[in-house]
Amino acid sequence: CSSIGIETATELEEPEMSEAYETLLVTREPGGLVFCTLNRPQALNAMSPKLIDELPAFLDALHDDTDARLVILRGAGRGFCSGLDLREQTGGGATVRPSVSASLRGQHKIAELVIKMRRVPQPFIALVHGAAAGGGFALVLASDIRIAGESARMNAAFIRIGLGACDIGSSYFLPRIVGSSVASELLLTGNFIEAPRALQTGLVSRVVPDAELERAGREMAEAILRNSPVGVRLTKDCLNWSVDAPTLEAAIAMEDRNQILASQSGDFREGVRAFLEKRPPKYSGD
Questions:
Q1: Which of the pair, 166 or 13, is modelled with greater confidence?
Q2: Which residue, of 15, 184, 202, 258, has the greatest Cβ tally within 10 A?
Q3: Residues 38, 51: contact at Cβ < 8 Å?
Q4: Average confidence score pLDDT of the chain
Q5: Are 60 and 120 in contact (CB under 8 A)?
Q6: What is the pLDDT of residue 104?
Q7: Do 274 and 284 touch, CB atoms closer than 8 A?
Q8: Could you give phi then psi for residue 114, rounded to 5 degrees?
């Protein structure tokens, strides 16, 4: 969209191709770029049961989708995602006490969202404007690259409603991104971190005016998509494993394996030819 602060999905630019969901707007463009827009603007894109059903379905479909090379994740309306929709989860305010086993199944379903995001081969770029709270913050943390609009403000809202702040992977991702001290501050207080400090701490890689979020996302996507499909997929995979590598040798072993795999591809041969011929490569995904 020309401005990320949209009020309804109908204001988005016409996509090249779109897929039917109730709570997501998924559009595809030539070259492998996929936009996934959380599309409940009337509720600040809060995570309703329907959204929690549809988002993993979208993620599952990405596994074997070689046409989809990169996903830009964003929210419609005034913010990215305000977290779990407490009104729908509690029946509009009524006291609902499901069994422990049912609660655990529901918890696993939500938590698996970030696992699925990391397992799919496509990199995720999160474009964050307005609030990204609770589960919305978790989706931002699970993304590979985070770009913030000037209005962005993020927090681990769980602790502000009587829960622990360590939820949906936040205790894993946050200290690895910003370090243990800042992560402890954000998780223990539940305070918002605004865009300028998010940039300062490395939580996001760029901050731009809200109206320029899509442009910034597209520029980042184009820089990634100009590289070979196999190289991008292997790089995301290696980065994920290397974050938890027990030793330098273990990380290098993964790098060595990936380089040998990539060197057997037609794209590697095309990349070398293009470099020698001083022209842009034309990768086929082979």
A1: 166
A2: 258
A3: yes
A4: 90
A5: no
A6: 84
A7: no
A8: -75, -30
The token duo for 239 is 């980065």
Residue 149's H or E segment, with its range, is strand 145-149
Structure tokens at 20: 């039917």
Residues 6+ apart with CB under 8 A from 173: 114, 138, 141, 142
Please check whether residue 241 is in contact with residue 254, taking contact to mean a CB–CB distance below 8 angstroms.
yes
- The per-residue pLDDT for range 174-225, each reduced to its tens digit, is 999 999 999 999 999 999 999 999 999 999 999 999 999 999 999 999 999 9
Please tell me the number of Cα atoms within 13 Å of 218 on its side-chain side: 13
H/E element, 41: none
Taking only the tens place, the pLDDT of each residue in 123-175 is: 999 999 999 999 999 999 999 999 999 999 999 999 998 899 999 999 999 99
Using N-to-C axis directions, what is the helix angle for 266-276 and 229-243, rounded to 10°? 110
The encoded tokens of residue 281 equal 């490569």
Q: HSE on the CB side for 93, CA within 13 Å?
A: 0
Q: Which residue has the tokens 């494993």?
A: 241
